[in-house]
Amino acid sequence: MTQKRILSGMQPTNQLHLGNYLGALKNWVDLQNEGSAECLYCVVDLHAVTQPYDRDNLAKATREVAAAYIAAGVDPAKSILFAQSSVPAHSQLMWLLATMAQMGKLDRMTQFKDKAGKNAEKAGLGLYAYPVLMAADILIYNATHVPVGEDQKQHLELARDIAATFNTRYDVEHFIQPEPYIMGAGTRVMSLRDGTSKMSKSAESDMTRINLTDDADLIAKKIKKAKTDAEPVPTCEAEFEGRPEVKNLMTIYSALSGEKMDSLFAQYGGQGFGDFKKALVDVAVAHLEPITTRMNHLMETPDEIDAILQKGGEKCNAIAQPFLNRTMDIMGFWKIQS
Ligand code: AMP
Ligand code: TRP
After folding, report:
1. What are phi and psi of 42, to 5 degrees?
2. Residue 225 catalytic?
3. Residue 118 is a catalytic residue
4. Which ligand is located closest to the Cα atom of residue 23?
5. Nearest bound ligand to CA 15?
6. What is the per-residue pLDDT for 294?
7. What was the pLDDT predicted at 337?
8. What's the whole-model pTM score?
9. Is there a catalytic annotation at residue 278?
10. Looking at domain 213-297, which of 3.40.50.1370, 1.10.357.10, 3.40.50.20, 1.10.240.10 is its CATH number?
């Protein structure tokens, strides 16, 4: 059987939020601690420059995301942590894969449509090709599993598709088709203000999300102001109908506490939202405060984070470069004889 290898990444843009944590990061830690796979977690800084960004802050933001990974439980002794840009083979493989990524499929990518907005004509090639770089991130390590939130499903499909196209075109079993791991209760955490749009780093109002850097007071304020309705807390699934904000809050509670939804219906169903929200604040603060504290602590010693990223980058280059060379051999490129 193929050795299980896990790879995932997040962009160093803005603050990480509860959606990133529940949809991805928490699962990364669980998978690492299961101990049955090699885990590679990267900060995808090359993806972060596909949209306007702050050059003076990019390196710091990369460190900060690495600190968030560690603070949430990614252990550099068990997993490899690295910055995407420190492993050139990602970008090099991307070019090769770009020759196999169909425009028709890229045209259908919803994340591009969302990010490009009305002005798609002016969007950069990098934003359009973003999913091909993501495919390269995964395929350069022949990762077998990719833990991500629901919104990345389409990108994963493309990566699988590209892997299959390569294998067919060159008649080889070179790339493994990676499986998405979309797991846990929080695969799609929604905005605190609008239950029909996902919690996102880029939403204008900070009140729509809980950031991993928010302190207890701010978390309490955001949950208190989170949108609900005049009906009582639901007593069963059916009562979520037409109430996406309420469903979202209860899902967050369940995902953070590990309690089943039925147990929440039994405890809070039929009451006003006051007690439920108070309990949700407690659960959220208990879970997130230690992460925030650790993150702030880690950021006091940026050299240590740099050393971890440096070591991770070296390990990844040692895996990725020979694999890129093999890929180029398969494609028939000329090479310097060593
Ligand atoms: P990004 O913020 O786009 O770099 O996303 C990093 C990871 O967090 C990806 O695996 C996403 O699928 C996941 N993610 C982002 N937003 C959410 C959300 N609202 N709910 C669940 N997962 C999310
Ligand atoms: N596209 C992912 C996101 O927006 C980030 C990402 C880039 C990624 N490369 C990856 C996730 C490789 C998993 C594996 O969230």
Report:
1. -115, 160
2. no
3. no
4. 1
5. 1
6. 95
7. 84
8. 0.95
9. no
10. 1.10.240.10
The closest-lying atom of ligand 2 relative to the alpha carbon of residue 84 is 9
The CA 13 to ligand 1 mean position distance, Å, reads 12
**Tokens found for residue 317:** 């280059």
Taking the chain (338 residues) in runs of 10, the rounded mean pLDDT of each run is 89 92 95 96 97 95 97 97 98 98 95 89 94 98 96 97 98 98 92 95 92 95 96 96 96 95 96 96 95 95 98 98 98 90
Indicate which residue of 60, 122, 153, 201 is catalytic.
Answer: 201
Architecture of domain 5-188+301-331: 3-Layer(aba) Sandwich (3.40)
Report CA(8)–ligand 2 centroid distance (Å). 6
